[in-house]
Amino acid sequence: MIPGIGTLTQDTLWCFSQVKGTIEIGTTEADIISTVEFNHTGELLATGDKGGRVVIFQREQESKNQVHRRGEYNVYSTFQSHEPEFDYLKSLEIEEKINKIRWLPQQNAAYFLLSTNDKTVKLWKVSERDKRPEGYNLKDEEGRLRDPATITTLRVPVLRPMDLMVEATPRRVFANAHTYHINSISVNSDYETYMSADDLRINLWNFEITNQSFNIVDIKPANMEELTEVITAAEFHPHHCNTFVYSSSKGTIRLCDMRASALCDRHTKFFEEPEDPSNRSFFSEIISSISDVKFSHSGRYIMTRDYLTVKVWDLNMENRPIETYQVHDYLRSKLCSLYENDCIFDKFECVWNGSDSVIMTGSYNNFFRMFDRNTKRDVTLEASRENSKPRAILKPRKVCVGGKRRKDEISVDSLDFSKKILHTAWHPSENIIAVAATNNLYIFQDKVN
Amino acid sequence: LAGGPGCNVCYGLVEDTQEKEGILPERAEEAKLKAKYPSLGQKPGGSDFLMKRLQKGVWGIISYPLSLDVLLCVDKIEGETSYFDSGDYNMAKAKMKNKQLPSAGPDKNLVTGDHIPTPQDLPQRKSSLVTSKLAGGQVE
């Protein structure tokens, strides 16, 4: 299997690798994972949770003894990124839940990431310390001050090795720039700027400057009664630092060019699939709301996720997507109850594999789906403790829509809607995926032959 | 519409309608929803929920216990219940903690504003030093 070339042929088998987190009856809300992201090399894997904490896993070096095992991910660092706040001026409760984490490309020995809650973006530096100075003149080895009268000689402190310590420090705090709730952050390819998007506005920041940001998109109507759509996600183009896209609750995507004007209220491209008006129902707008938008690594395509489908769009064609994949179309006959239990508002994310040939997204019952864009095959897999033996091959799952249920199939009515997979991540160059199932993080790899 | 072959036309129409509903399970679901909650507005299920989404986390609106039916008629609030002020909020949280409810969200039927909070009643500020269980933190 060539690394990075993922295909869902009959030969691709996904295996369980690791699971992080505990088995509990009644999950503590703080432990619910809210974001998962590999860094640019895939060496690090970061998770954020509802309790405002970030946990970073690092891949072990592959041992020469165990050729058949790929490097495992182990805890590298963990810290409290955001804390609950209360804005007294606006009577607004600010959750500490980490909405997104985005890594910066590595430029020196330290790692940098952006993490954001609803209101504040923070730049964290994660660095290693494996030496410490010893032999101070004025302090003894425990750090207590020495009586100057006892000091008769002068010495130069030396650096001695110590046990590796990984420290996370907040280097920048970008606050007070968003009236509404931040849903996305995206690092620009210039590595100097990034954007943060809330329901109605998008701001452009310079990493060095925390007390100012440029507003580049503002869709707030003068009269809020006229509000018809909100921004749901935004991302910079992977190579063109002047280009970004944002998606809306009406199922449209706008591409903007920052060279055109300072305020990008007028889009350069507008992507919308025409809807047959006779198909319209009460649910149409809700299920067309885009919950995630992602550029392909090539920069040629964008992928969007709405409630029932994943769509791939060619940047050169605005009037319809080039590919549409059904994630769980059987839910169409359940929309009434999904509206009643709020599941219809769940925001699923979607990801590309390293070569842009396979796309992945989550569903309910701890199922997640992969679609091969070339072979047009798709597979449904499940993240569960039952399939958690080391290197156990995951068996494809199938949902039975009606009529006769085969032995291994699950009927739509038996699906557990509280087990939702909203967040997944794909290693940038290998077939390793991270799947967040409520409070557990599963890592799967393809079978090494 | 009428006439000799009218019967066929009628059947055709009926069939068409049924077929259409078969093609559009959403319409059947919409009918179900409207049958349950007749006061659900005529406008598409998008606009009001947008406003509520923007209001997430905002206080200042007194919330009274509503019957479940009426609650479900209101367009979905994608967030937390509203409280009158910060004292009210903290009292409600303290009550919930004592009840030891499993998480999920605030109790929609919770009555608030029945007690003037004193500093002794307010819960301790939430501890932010509990390590994540993903990192091998304590299982509470």
Automatic annotation (TrEMBL), chain A:
Keyword list, A-Z: Repeat, WD repeat
Molecular-function annotations in GO: protein phosphatase regulator activity
Signal peptide positions (record): none
Gene Ontology cellular component annotations, sorted alphabetically: protein phosphatase type 2A complex
SUPFAM superfamilies found in the cross-reference section: WD40 repeat-like
SMART domains assigned: WD40
PANTHER family xrefs: PROTEIN PHOSPHATASE PP2A REGULATORY SUBUNIT B
Family under the similarity heading: Belongs to the phosphatase 2A regulatory subunit B family.
The protein's name: Serine/threonine-protein phosphatase 2A 55 kDa regulatory subunit B
Organism listed in the record: Pan troglodytes (Chimpanzee)
Gene giving rise to this polypeptide: PPP2R2B
UniProtKB/TrEMBL annotation, chain B:
GO biological process: cell division
Keywords: Cell cycle, Cell division, Cytoplasm, Mitosis, Phosphoprotein, Protein phosphatase inhibitor
Subcellular location: Cytoplasm
Transmembrane segment boundaries: none
GO molecular-function terms, A-Z: protein phosphatase inhibitor activity
Stretch list, region Disordered: 99-140
Cellular-component GO terms for this entry: cytoplasm
Location, primary (coarse class): cytoplasm
Family recorded in the similarity comment: Belongs to the endosulfine family.
Name of this chain's protein: Alpha-endosulfine
